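Hi! If you just cloned this repository, the fastest way to understand the data is to look at a raw example. We've pasted two of them here, unedited. The first protein comes first, obviously.
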Amino acid sequence: MDDHTYDVIVIGAGPVGENVADRVVQGGLSAAIVERDLVGGECSYWACMPTKALLRSTAALRAARHVPGSREAVTGDLDVTAVLRRRDSFSSHWKDDGQVSWLDSAGITLYRGQGRIRPDRVVEVTDEAGVATSLTARHAVVIATGSAALLPDIPGLREAEPWSSREAAAASAVPGRLAVIGGGVVASEMATAFAALGSSVTMLARDGVLPLAEPFAGERVTESLREAGVSVLLGAEAGTVKRDGDGTVHITLTTGEDVEADEVLVAVGRAPNTQNMGLGTVGLTPGAWLAVDDTLRVVGDDGAPLAGGWLYAAGDVNRRVLLTHQGKYQARAVGDVIVARAKGEAVDDSPWGRHVATADERAVPQVVFTEPEIASVGLTAAAAETAGFRIRVVDYDLGAVAGSVLHADGYRGQARMVVDEDRKVIVGFTLVGPDVAELLHAATIAVVGEVPLDRLWHAVPAFPTVSEVWLRLLEAYGR
């Protein structure tokens, strides 16, 4: 085997791994990155980008139909072929030439193949031809291999060859009937997308729709899905699954009812991509999530860093937050702290310090691109109470704001802020309504910055914008 040495070796060339490597190189160290699939990862080809491309055309058409003048200009229905073609372009037609070119321009060396960790900062890479290359890291190895769709243990499900989020995002044709097992973000977004593309969708939402969001958010999305023709079966659980010889999928519920579909999408959670990586050689369990300390070093059951402190994990694999943007945030912290330690510089690991990912704990922003959109940051009211905060919840009808009335006829929405009454700061914020995604960052700044409500009073929203809801919420709080 050839031998190659770098300051840092990153396993996984998705957005998280790319950002770790880039940060390390910008800090003056050398970096190699290992990838067994497409450079760019899940987000680029099977998640964030293609799924939002599937949803965007429908959202634009819906928006046009809610404003007089543009409504009259819309003379046709959604062009499904054009939607899929646009999706393909955002997925780069599932080719990673552009991403590979970027790695080269950034000074990051790429090794294609399966990476396996060995003691003493060694990573063995085996390519498709079975040729092994041994890489040695002077300072750190970072695991950034992400997660994959979880397949529940339902009799017959695996044999029925279900869709995961990957197959749904990359579908070349729209099934006449689609069954969705799950009620979370992926399930809700894909039910929204495929219903608009022409599928007859049945959603088996055992735990409800968007159960981790504020209850009113899930209720609004459920109502909207049903208005779009989706059969939302709350509390429904698949008991068995079988695909006939003609391709028809039969899902028998635990209640005995039968659901038929041409395809079934399973969206019930994620599992870590940590199998077949040699984790056992450093005292870790293959296939398990990786626990990390505040600077994202992998730790054992006692909370102490493993393997002499040279092994890190960023992104989905550490299970802190399974969101691309939060993984990239972790990547910046990991890259910077590795550089600092390599150069003997001070490490700022205090809360909100440069070398930690404090926002993972209570300041995570997320957008669900359903109809209506759900934009949230921080804690829900229930989560804040569970965390021990003494809170006050303030709600406001987003459709009553002047900017919303101008934005679309019949605009419906809601805004909620969750206030920590002891500190008079916002610890949670949720928006539900058309096109609320772009309103979220103001709330994120307020939560992360712990801006006192008395100071927020002086952040005057422009009129007439939907952002005026901030003033209305503060007025309602002051009453």
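Ok, and the second one:
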Amino acid sequence: MAAETTDLSDRALSIFAFAAYHHLISGQPISSVIRRDGSGHEADPQGAAEVEKRGLATLSEDEITFTEPGVAFVEQVVAAIRGASSR
């Protein structure tokens, strides 16, 4: 199944917003984010399931690992954020 980013829910977009945050802070491309940190913080379960179903990531118990299309979408989100500030 080809990865699909059209009409992602806000829950799914929150996963990419989190990845974009880490990209912007580190200046490095992001290929995975923590799903559960063991301290009570976790990615939205419905959002995580959606990105997996759409072929944008694979899930483990503690991590969301983006597929190639998922990494590319993180980059699109970062570009959109930068574009919103006219950079």
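That's it. A detail worth noticing about the second one: The two ends are 35 Å apart (CA to CA).
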